[in-house]
Design brief:
The protein contains two helices and no strands. With 73 residues, it is mostly helical. The termini are far apart.
């Protein structure tokens, strides 16, 4: 009887080891912190561009600077 040969299987690449839970938690925390900081900068920029300081606050700042010999407008 002739021998039946099975087709060769392609080699399976080894899986890379999965990072540990503390490392994944640290990376996720850093990503969240960066996203929140960017959102705070964008939100702060929007607030200052659209609302900023009111007239009363600007006048107070100008008065305080004038007391110290600095002219501002």
């Amino acid at each position: 009887m002739p021998t039946i040969l099975e087709p060769a299987q392609p080699p399976v690449p080894p899986e890379s080891p999965r990072p540990s839970f503390p490392r994944r938690l640290l990376v996720s925390t850093i990503r969240l912190t960066v996203v929140l900081m960017v959102a705070a900068l964008v939100g702060g920029g929007w607030y200052l561009a659209h609302k900023g300081f009111g007239r009363e606050w600007r006048q107070r700042v100008v008065e305080e600077l004038h007391k110290r010999g600095v002219e501002a407008s």
